[in-house]
């Protein structure tokens, strides 16, 4: 999936020890340029932090995966970026991938003889 917008926050790097050694993780907050802007927090992990240096006010296009995991009966979701393209000075208009923000459409009621299961 992809989302585009302007970086409005760069959070501190978090580090820790795991079963595979030391890990690093950094969160960023992006704001879309939609009519009703949305703020999205995404994460870079490990070497991706150095591979894609990002600063506040940069306009970027973020390719990411969404992962959820359960811990002690609660579910946690992470938006993990795997590629970031810089779009310029931060003043260029950007938009979120239309598939990610397409409005929900209500399906018409099924009529007799319809192949729809509902």
Secondary-structure topology with pairs:
Blueprint: E1 2-10, E2 14-18, E3 21-31, E4 39-45, H1 48-51, E5 59-71, E6 74-88, H2 98-101
Antiparallel strand pairs: 1-3, 1-5, 2-3, 3-4, 5-6
Short summary:
The chain has 118 residues and is mainly beta. 7% of the residues lie in helices and 51% in strands. Mean pLDDT is 82; it is low at 89-111.
Question: How would you describe this protein?
Answer:
This protein is mostly beta strands. It is 7% helix and 51% strand. It has one domain: Nucleic acid-binding proteins (OB fold (Dihydrolipoamide Acetyltransferase, E2P), Beta Barrel). It is built from 2 helices and 6 strands. Strands 1, 2, 3, 4, 5 and 6 form a 6-stranded antiparallel beta sheet that branches. It is globular, with a radius of gyration of 19 Å. The model is unreliable at 89-111 (pLDDT under 50).
Any key phrases for this structure?
single chain, globular, six-stranded antiparallel beta sheet, 118 residues, mainly beta, 51% strand, OB fold (Dihydrolipoamide Acetyltransferase, E2P)
Structural class: mainly beta
Number of separate domains: 1
Low-confidence region ranges: 89-111
Main beta sheet strand tally, sense and closure: 6 strands, antiparallel
CATH architecture assignment name: Beta Barrel
Find the CATH topology: OB fold (Dihydrolipoamide Acetyltransferase, E2P)
CATH superfamily: Nucleic acid-binding proteins
CATH class equals Mainly Beta
Order of helices and strands: EEEEHEEH
Total beta-strand segments:
6
Helix content bin = under 10%
Q: C-alpha Rg, in Å?
A: 19 Å
Beta-strand percent range? over 45%
Gap between N and C termini: 30 Å
What average pLDDT do the residues reach?
82
Overall form = globular
* Quaternary class: single chain
Q: In DSSP terms, counting alpha (H) and pi (I) runs of 4 or more, how many helices?
A: 2
């Amino acid at each position: 999936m992809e989302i585009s917008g302007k970086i409005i926050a760069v959070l501190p790097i978090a580090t820790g020890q795991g079963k595979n050694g030391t890990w690093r993780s950094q969160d960023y907050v992006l704001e879309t340029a939609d009519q009703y802007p949305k703020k999205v927090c995404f994460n870079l992990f490990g070497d991706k932090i150095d591979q894609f240096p990002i600063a506040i006010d940069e306009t970027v296009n973020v390719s990411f995966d969404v992962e959820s995991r359960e811990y002690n009966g609660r579910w946690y979701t992470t938006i993990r970026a795997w590629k970031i393209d810089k779009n310029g000075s931060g003043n260029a208009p950007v938009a979120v991938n239309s598939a990610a923000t397409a409005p929900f459409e209500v399906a018409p009621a099924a009529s007799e003889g319809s192949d729809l299961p509902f």
